[in-house]
Design brief:
The protein has about 675 residues and is mainly alpha-helical. About 70% of the residues lie in helices and about 0% in strands. It has 31 helices and 2 strands. α4 packs across α12 (about 255-280) and α21 (about 490-500) crosses α24 (about 570-585). The radius of gyration is 28 Å and the shape is globular. It starts with a helix and ends with a helix.
């Protein structure tokens, strides 16, 4: 105290705060220590002390940088490349859709991809806790991302279950695939033999409408949303097997997931190239390719085209879901994530383009089949359009008059095309193995994100990773049983349409605002230079601050309007349920942002708020007003300081510069 009174006062204040935290919030203290150790604040001795205090094992790491890159490619390249992208191209003007898709990738997708990788690698923690470290009011970002990921993970594995069913049925020892023997072709096998959403005796030219919502649908429909009907037991078994495969991929964390990713990420490209060659060799492939590659620029004036392009970028690249920060948190501190930030999105979008090219050339039976196919019923980019071109030439129906929307490209168009190939069962096995790889890669990445959030929150620390993974998979399997009922397809379309679109746009915009203005764009650039040895251009930093938030704000409003005025004829109670799902994943962002305003500091002591709380938005505003009032009345405060009583029972030597102590502590924490 005699040598440096100010240091003594600061030390006394910190001791008081530390004592209170140890008494009231030991778990919070342990999380803070783990965070400081991960950030490297205080050197090796601090890291060792924090690790010893938390008694947690060191954070797992990827075996190599290439393993991380392959895992990101496997996560990004999924079923969406093979069923969402071609259907969006088909319904939004063919080649015209590629224009907003490419612009959205460059202006929004790749910058946010870089941002999430950089922040995850810097803080060495998953997305659920990451944004809370940046600022306490941003904790809702992580909760919203994990909620959206959990909702999608539940129904995404149902698509893997469908692929497993088709895979097993492809073992045709007589050389004839079961959907080739069906009277209604692949469409009847899909709706009657697989989903059981309509009886076989109702097969007619208008029958495909019975398994989809249409303008003439009467309520209540059975099977439907209100009455989903009984479980389809073959699909229940396939769903259980799908979750067992996911558990095997994530039971040991990134060590098991990284090894699996080498096969699941690379094998689909071999099958895709084979399908592309086959599709381009069809007689009518040029019709589909011309329609696919020729843009209709009048479509660019429709706002829903831009919303669809942005939505597909978020779904295909995986931004906004919390998975990329979780994956990057297992990197070494000096990994070059800037290279991955442009390499992975380019490979992903190139895969979508090639997939669409191949699928729009694959053939169908020579008898004119029902053409009311749903969006998921048509398969990927170049592959898809070459298949549809041949279908158009055989049936005489123009491509732009075909109805492609929903969930059947991969389970109607491609199976019908494969049935016409020589050695059809072999090609069917390869194709559905590819779908399994694509689905499992994305699915276990989402489950790994959820488990990383659980680990970072300190939940279930006494249980091994395999037990926590089994509990998560079992819970999601139980919820997913709803989607393998006879009305499960309707539930899947409802959840897929409402669950995550608005949330992803909001999360992406708030993340950019958080890094651009709260964390600091210049600070993020300095971190990137330190970790990846790459200098970010100033234009990219201003993109984070202004351009991306503004674009996503416009897209969010338009997405809200488009969803509210959607032409999908769900019943009113289903629409209300869909909006509840959308709000369930989006509401944590504003609710947790205003929590510091409504709740008292968690560990206040003797009238002193904690440094972390003083670093909040409200603390910054209060500190600024306090400094202003002190500067305006400095003289009066100085004259009356000696006679003023000590507030809150503090010693007189601490009362005069109490605000300075708090501000210094807040600066030290920041």
């Amino acid at each position: 105290k005699l040598a440096c009174p100010r240091s003594a006062r600061l030390w006394t204040s910190h001791c008081s705060l530390l004592y209170n935290m140890c008494q009231q919030r030991p778990s919070a203290l342990r999380r803070e220590e783990r965070g400081h150790a991960a950030l490297g604040e205080g050197g090796a001795a601090s890291n060792a002390g924090a690790a010893a205090a938390s008694k947690d094992p060191p954070r797992r790491k990827w075996s190599s940088g290439a393993e991380f890159t392959i895992a990101c490619i496997g996560y990004a390249v999924g079923l969406g490349n093979f069923w969402r992208f071609p259907a969006l191209c088909f319904n939004n003007g063919g080649g015209a859709f590629l224009v907003p898709y490419t612009l959205t990738l460059l202006l929004i997708g790749m910058p946010i991809f870089l941002l999430e990788l950089g922040m995850g690698q810097k803080f060495q923690i998953g997305g659920a806790e990451l944004w809370k470290r940046v600022h306490p009011s941003l904790g809702g970002l992580g909760v919203a991302s994990i909620t959206a990921t959990a909702i999608v993970a539940v129904y995404y594995n149902v698509v893997v279950c469908w692929a497993l069913w088709y895979f097993f049925r492809s073992f045709a020892w007589d050389g004839v695939l079961p959907w080739a023997e069906s009277r209604g072709g692949a469409l009847q096998f899909w709706e009657v033999d697989t989903l059981h959403c309509r009886p076989a005796q109702n097969l007619s030219s208008a029958a495909p409408e019975t398994c989809a919502w249409g303008a003439g649908t009467t309520w209540p429909q059975e099977p439907g949303i209100a009455r989903p009907g009984p479980l389809v037991w073959p699909l229940v078994g396939c769903l259980a097997l799908g979750w067992v495969l996911v558990w095997l991929c994530v039971c040991k964390g990134v060590h098991s997931a990284g090894k699996v990713a080498w096969f699941t990420a690379l094998f689909p490209y071999a099958v895709l190239l084979a399908l592309l060659v086959r599709g381009l060799s069809l007689p009518g492939a040029h019709v589909g390719l011309k329609w696919y590659l020729t843009p209709s620029f009048d479509k660019l004036a429709e706002p829903q085209v831009w919303v669809a392009a942005a939505s597909q970028i978020f779904y295909s690249t995986g931004i906004g879901w919390g998975t990329l920060p979780a994956f990057a948190s297992y990197n070494r501190h000096d990994h070059n994530f800037v290279r991955d930030a442009w390499l992975v999105p380019v490979i992903n979008c190139g895969t979508s383009f090639l997939a669409g090219l191949a699928a729009f050339s694959v053939p169908r039976t020579h008898a004119p089949p029902p053409l009311a196919l749903t969006a998921e019923r048509c398969a990927p980019g170049l592959v898809v359009f070459s298949v549809l071109g041949d279908m158009s030439q055989e049936t005489g129906v123009p491509i732009d008059e075909m109805q492609i929307e929903g969930s059947g490209l991969a389970f109607v168009v491609y199976p019908q095309a494969i049935a016409k190939l020589p050695v059809a069962p072999l090609f069917a096995l390869l194709f559905f193995t590819m779908l399994l790889c694509l689905g499992l890669d994305s699915e276990f990445s989402m489950v790994e994100t959820i488990l990383t959030a659980v680990d970072d929150a300190g939940v279930g620390q006494n249980y091994p990773r395999a037990v926590k993974a089994a509990a998560a998979c079992l819970a999601m399997f139980g919820v997913g049983l709803l989607f393998v009922t006879r009305g499960g397809l309707h539930w899947l379309e409802l959840v897929d349409g409402y669950a995550a679109n608005l949330t992803l746009f909001i999360v992406g915009g708030v993340e950019c605002l958080a890094v651009g203005w709260v964390y600091g764009a210049d600070r993020f650039a300095a971190d990137t230079l330190e970790m990846a040895k790459a200098k970010l251009p100033k234009a990219l930093l201003w993109n984070y601050k202004l351009v991306v938030p503004a674009l996503l704000a416009v897209l969010t409003v338009q997405a809200f309007v488009s969803t509210a005025t959607s032409k999908v004829h769900f019943p009113p109670y289903a629409v209300a349920l869909g909006w509840c799902l959308a709000l369930a994943s989006a509401l944590p962002i504003p609710l947790l942002a205003i929590r510091p305003l409504c709740c008292p500091p968690p560990y206040a002591s003797e009238g002193l708020t904690s440094p972390r709380e003083r670093a909040g938005l409200v603390g910054k505003l209060a500190a600024s007003l306090h400094r202003l009032s002190r500067s305006l009345s400095f003289g009066a405060s100085s004259r009356g300081a000696s006679s003023a009583p000590a507030p809150s029972g503090l010693p007189p030597e601490l009362s005069t510069e109490r605000a300075d102590v708090e501000l210094a502590a807040a600066r030290e924490v920041r």
